[in-house]
Please model this.
Amino acid sequence: MTERAAATSTQRRTPNRWQVGRLVERRVETPTAQTLVLEVPDWPGHLPGQHVDLRLTAPDGYQAARSYSIAGPAVDGPGGPRIEVTVQRVHDGEVSPYLIDVFGAGDPVEVRGPLGGWFIWRPEETAPVQLVAGGSGVVPLMAMIRARRAVGSKAPFRLIYSVRTPGDVIYADELRRRVRDDFGLDVAYVYTREAPEGWRGEPHRIGLADVNTHGWPPDLEPLTYVCGPTAFVETVADLLVGLGHPSRRVKTERFGPTG
Amino acid sequence: MTEMSYLDGNMLDGPMRELFTVDLSSAMGRCENCGTTGSMASLHVYSHAPGLVARCPSCEEVMVRLVRGPDRAWLDMRGTTFLQVPMPMEQTFPGPL
Model:
């Protein structure tokens, strides 16, 4: 390494390196989703919306890696930084059933990240933000909601959260609490199969009326983040662009059923 | 799972960071077939193939193929005219004296 290179290189680990993280805590969110808290000793920090790749190696050497959104800001634990991911069980999946059923406290998993420079919200942004989540697509959006409060941002946030049934709402209690306490956060729900008691309207898939009623008008030049299954994201992004939101301000992240 | 569903370019970040020192997720690329320019993150990625195949969101032509073996990687970008990568501000070379 030449002198000049040494002067400009950072000692920080680059995100392309796999490092070993360990499970320190597990929280049940819904019947099919759990939050895993991982201790990652050399974690360099991350921005809300970024993801990590987790890699598992079977005894015969077979490896499987999957991308998971980071669910909130990193916190310092006794053994180093901790990050959390929320894993939704994918039926017939290769990785998610293992992470939910088998992966135990203290067990190692390889972690690569933070990754992604596109689907991120920078806390210095002051523009209004609209977040549209389909199912477990709420995870990176929750990271933004949690970061907003953590840094004391005053940017107005609106979340539209589409779920099958009330029991499928991830972070339900925390969202209720934040709507009350995080000044400037609104949350609207869309139920596709079964709505709660006393809900006005029928269960339906997200449509123009939902986005128009609960989002920000294009005149306010909001930043938009849409995350969910591929078809959901395409539908919502098309609706938003149709309403007049410039496509460069509508950022999308699609979840595939690769679990 | 029978449907050919795709993921988006965000999932390319990890595999691409193994080859490049910069984050390409916010890089803009131009599709050689239809000329659409957009971010790498907006590509449609199919992971069912032996490797990753990223297609243009407008015309669905292949823009990037990445196959990772145990000791090597193959990267085929013949469907991409150029990549424009955001860089930290510095004096470009050659610059004015």
Notes: The two ends of chain B are 61 Å apart (CA to CA).
